[in-house]
Amino acid sequence: MREKILQLKNISKAFPGVQALEEVNFDLETGEVHCIVGGNGAGKSTLIKILAGVYSPDGGEILLDGVRYERFTPHISRDLGIQTIYQETLLAPTLSVAENIFLGDSLINRNGVVKWKEIRARAKEILDLLEVDIDIDAKVRDLGIAGKQAVQIAKALANESRIMIFDEPTASFGRKEVDNLFKIIRTLKQRGVGIIYISHRIEEVFEIADRISVFKDGKSVAHHDSKEGLAFNTLIHEMVGRSTNQFYDRERVPVGGVVLEVENLRGSDVNGISFSLKRGEVLGIGGMVGSKRTELLRLIFGADRLLSGTVTYKGKTFQPKSPLQMMKKGFCMVTEDRAITGLLMKRSLKENIMICKYSKFPQMFLNMKEEERITRAEMERLSIKAKSPDQLVLNLSGGNQQKAILAKWLLTNGDIFIMDEPTRGIDIAAKEDLYQLIVEIAKNGGSVILVSSDMPELVCMSDRILIMKDGSLAGELLQENISEENIIRVIVGG
Ligand SMILES: Nc1ncnc2c1ncn2[C@@H]1O[C@H](COP(=O)(O)OP(=O)(O)OP(=O)(O)O)[C@@H](O)[C@H]1O
Ligand SMILES: [Mg+2]
Asked: Looking at residues 257-267, what average pLDDT do you find?
């Protein structure tokens, strides 16, 4: 028998200049997955931060097991058995994986000695459940974004809880990692845990949801008690107010001659990779989480130390030494981890968007009006939901931060766009806008290297796909052979 554990009634929350939530009702039963979907800035993360005790609501009430609360604090929320996996990773970067999983936990024995053996054993056990290949002694700062997500999930699983909240846990997971997480979620359900699950990947929502709530502009605009008979398009329409195709059908652009030759690139995790990139081409790179795709991109962009190898671009053969050098040559890189390498969180949207232009043309000077105009144009082009160009990036929703990264790089007018999970966390409408922009880049003679864990995205956008495995190239798929099955076949080594 399912029981209602949680009820939210008429919850409102305003931030200066924006009503993030307006009289929202929501409830959760034991042993169910209640999904929340909605566009970027709809208020999803705000709601779960209220449950985690990070924000206090301006109005409304929270009922947990029928007991009324006006607000939670992080402490109360935790004591009541609520665990949250945030959209942005909040881990201690200099501590190890095992330490992070048990951070704040009392694995200290009576004499005040930390039970290292137990901590390491339990951390390993939980990561094995997730089937992710992560060294428990690695420092968290050395993990990629997917690794960090896995550690966050493990951290939540390490604590027995009654309510688990996942805010876009799979944004940079591939199919295998998603499958493992869903297996764990199903086990949690059987144990009676109530689960709130937020995702922009609609096919995941259809797979895991028992009930679905749709948020739009701070309101809960639709609710489905079951996904039975619910059409994909109905849900999209409720979210973004228009229909889209589940599978994007991109316009094809003729591909020209070779513009970039990468030869035998070797870094600490990359074992000698060679490939060429053509004019107007979108070259996809597939592979499992941990296959070192990001590391390859970072080497090309000069962000990591190259052990050997060269790139040949515009008739010159050289070694990428720094991102600034590469930017001046016309390379741009959209990074996967927005909090660390992508944005200055405590600066305004305008400063963040203009920064690449200025580092590329230091002598260039624009007046404030012009900066404002450019920023507003980018906000319009990518539908960035922000109060004004002066809003701090820190206060934007996750998806809107991702759009800010895209805007800043798109403005540099580069020739080679390196994109690492560019649509991570952005809503379905904005995804299509970005796909259109990628096609525009190709049409204008630019070239794109696209790393994506989102299979439909990789399949529909790429002219050719390279597949990486353990830091090496495992295969190449030409356009006529591109399909999800073929990608998986190469990944598993068939
Ligand atoms: N601390 C804050 N200060 C000011 N505004 C904020 C703050 N946190 C959120 N907002 C604003 O509240 C609105 C809702 O944001 P929220 O993060 O809840 O969206 P979301 O539905 O999680 O979006 P996404 O899908 O992009 O993650 C946005 O307009 C956002 O800019
Ligand atoms: Mg969010």
From this structure: 97
